[in-house]
């Protein structure tokens, strides 16, 4: 437990950031303190202000925004009063940042050793080259990477995603900063790699007594890493609580809603997405910003804004911004999960069958004699670590992987592995939703143009009917109709992913292949998408769901196939595999899966570190 009596490393007072054009605030009245060695979780939906707040703590705002008030005091020094040159000097040395995507954060043209050398030469030029080398090798060992010259000669593209992320952690911690900001550093990682990276962060923060802010939309990860949690909504703090208080009894309706929307690997339960959308800075009400989505809102909530106040009787400091702090007394405890009765799957026939699939990247074989079948209306989850072959297999089935052999049948009819050789009907009935929606959407077309073209390509409809189909599908994926006038660059990552899902749904497919489509989504949006997929299943749509999130698997899948190094090592009914796994690899995945209802693994072996 962090000592709350010591002097704060970071004090944030009345921090507000506003849009330059309108003056409307993006975040406002942000107040909190952070102690040495303390990890603060910063959570909230897309648009809540997480990224704006974490950037402001570095003295930075995106184009079109500015810091209009407040203080960010780092060890007694207000960094917002520093010049640009002074701020650049403290970034990296006193305040470090770990980005979500290590592939773009690391310089692809520089070897790993050169990136460490550049950092040390800028911030610690007084040290000798020998001292630099010693520091580099020490930090590499601490993050579980090879501490030798051979590793330092590699380029970023020669490392796995987990290794790249640990290089970023080493770069952030090597100067022993006072504060480190981690922006969703494990979002794209599989469960075992994620668990190991979280353990490293925890150990380094404790060893170097670094205060950390961990930004995430995944509350199961926050439960695994943080001491304290701030829940942001519409640019303001909705709740500020110690970890145990938040998860045992959240006191703000929004926090409660987020936790209720989380799928969990430990048990299957009903997911309850928060209805509606968070308001933009230009469309906030005079009262509580959450009032339009809150079942407990009254007239006062819609006209008077609540301010952060201490919770009466709390053992640890606990603050909420709510006019009705006793609303929870009539609500069941959040940890009392609503267990679902498994519905019986009425199997009609095998809609898709793959037999003896082998696949290569260049000369490297990545799939070995893989066979599977999916029944109509079924959801089959394909799970495994990064590099196990999940995406390769799903792309082979979709017809977008060239080097494939084997046999693939769709509704009893053999289909070629190349999509260009398939009929229009076959392409129309099998749709693929990519993990990265930004690369999948044309940046020069509006959302309306993108979706309209899909309808026009597959269906002969009037302009009025086409427009109605576009509006209907946007409603299906929980997006406002006016979003169709935006471009992909104008949307958040979660919004872009929902557009990608909408585009696939417009094709009215029989089979949907979903490649990690919920990994970047807020838990509430994720819950709404999973409910949507369940509804599609009831209508007869078959789903192949590729994911590393075992909580999502528990919530949506009928069966699971576990891939390891290009081979299926275990398959079976979801509850059977996740509750009583037989293969050691499946057991390893489950041991490291984050959960609200089980104790996370906090041990890291050198053998495990060397594998990711």
UniProtKB/TrEMBL annotation:
Its main location: membrane. GO terms for cellular component: plasma membrane. Keywords: ATP-binding, Cell inner membrane, Cell membrane, Membrane, Nucleotide-binding, Translocase, Transport. GO terms for molecular function: ATP binding; ATP hydrolysis activity. InterPro entries: AAA+_ATPase, ABC_Ni/Peptide_Import, ABC_transporter-like_ATP-bd, ABC_transporter-like_CS, Oligopep_ABC_C, P-loop_NTPase. Belongs to the ABC transporter superfamily. This is ABC transporter ATP-binding protein.
């Amino acid at each position: 437990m962090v000592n709350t009596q010591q002097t704060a490393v970071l004090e944030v007072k009345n921090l507000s950031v506003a849009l330059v054009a309108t003056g409307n605030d993006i975040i406002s009245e942000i107040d909190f303190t952070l102690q040495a060695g303390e990890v603060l979780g910063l959570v909230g939906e897309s648009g809540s202000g997480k990224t704006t707040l974490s950037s402001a703590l570095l003295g930075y705002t995106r184009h079109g925004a500015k810091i209009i008030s407040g203080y960010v005091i780092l060890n007694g020094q207000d960094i917002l009063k520093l010049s640009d040159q002074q701020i650049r000097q403290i970034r990296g040395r006193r305040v470090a940042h770990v980005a979500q995507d290590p592939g773009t954060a690391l310089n692809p043209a520089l070897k790993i050793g050169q990136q460490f050398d550049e950092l040390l030469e800028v911030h610690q030029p007084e040290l000798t080259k020998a001292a630099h080398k010693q520091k580099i090798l020490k930090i590499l060992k601490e993050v579980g990477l090879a501490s030798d010259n051979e590793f330092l000669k590699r380029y970023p593209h020669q490392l796995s995603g987990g290794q790249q992320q640990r290089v970023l952690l080493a770069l952030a911690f090597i100067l022993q900063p006072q504060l480190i900001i981690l922006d969703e550093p494990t979002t794209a990682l599989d469960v075992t790699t994620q668990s190991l990276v979280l353990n490293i962060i925890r150990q380094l923060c404790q060893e170097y007594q670094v205060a950390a802010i961990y930004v995430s939309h995944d509350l199961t990860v926050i439960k695994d890493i943080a001491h304290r949690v701030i829940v942001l909504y519409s640019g303001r703090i909705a709740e500020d609580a110690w970890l145990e208080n938040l998860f045992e009894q959240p006191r703000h309706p929004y926090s409660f809603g987020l936790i209720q929307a989380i799928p969990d690997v430990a048990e299957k339960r009903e997911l309850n997405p928060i209805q509606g959308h968070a308001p933009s800075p230009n469309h906030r009400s005079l009262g509580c910003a959450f009032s339009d989505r809150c079942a407990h809102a009254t007239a006062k909530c819609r006209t008077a804004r609540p301010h952060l106040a201490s919770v009466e009787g709390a053992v640890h400091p606990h603050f909420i911004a709510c006019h009705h702090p006793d609303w929870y007394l009539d609500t069941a405890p959040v940890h009392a999960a609503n267990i679902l009765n498994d519905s019986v799957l009425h199997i009609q026939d095998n809609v898709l069958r793959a037999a003896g699939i082998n696949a290569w990247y260049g000369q490297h074989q990545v799939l070995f004699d893989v066979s599977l079948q999916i029944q109509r209306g079924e959801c089959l989850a394909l799970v495994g670590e990064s590099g196990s072959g999940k995406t390769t297999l799903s792309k082979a089935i979709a017809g977008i992987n060239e080097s494939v052999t084997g046999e693939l049948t769709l509704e009893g009819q053999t289909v070629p592995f190349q999509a260009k050789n398939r009929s229009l009907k076959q392409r129309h009935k099998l749709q693929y939703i990519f993990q990265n929606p930004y690369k999948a959407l044309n940046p020069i077309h509006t959302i309306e143009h993108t979706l309209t073209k899909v309808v026009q390509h597959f269906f002969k409809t009037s302009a009025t009917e086409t427009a109605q189909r576009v509006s209907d599908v946007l409603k299906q994926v929980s997006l406002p109709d006016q979003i169709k006038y935006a471009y992909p660059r104008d949307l958040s990552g979660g919004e872009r992913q929902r557009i990608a899902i909408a585009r696939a749904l417009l094709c009215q497919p029989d089979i949907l292949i979903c490649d990690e489509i919920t990994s970047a989504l807020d838990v509430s949006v994720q819950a709404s998408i999973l409910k949507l997929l369940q509804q599609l299943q009831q209508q007869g749509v078959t789903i192949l769901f590729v994911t590393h999130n075992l909580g999502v698997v528990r919530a949506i899948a009928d069966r699971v196939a576990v891939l390891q190094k290009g081979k299926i090592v275990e398959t079976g009914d979801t509850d059977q595999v996740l509750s009583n796994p037989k293969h050691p690899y499946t057991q390893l995945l489950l041991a490291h899966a984050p959960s609200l209802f089980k104790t996370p693994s906090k041990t890291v072996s050198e053998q495990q570190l060397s594998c990711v």
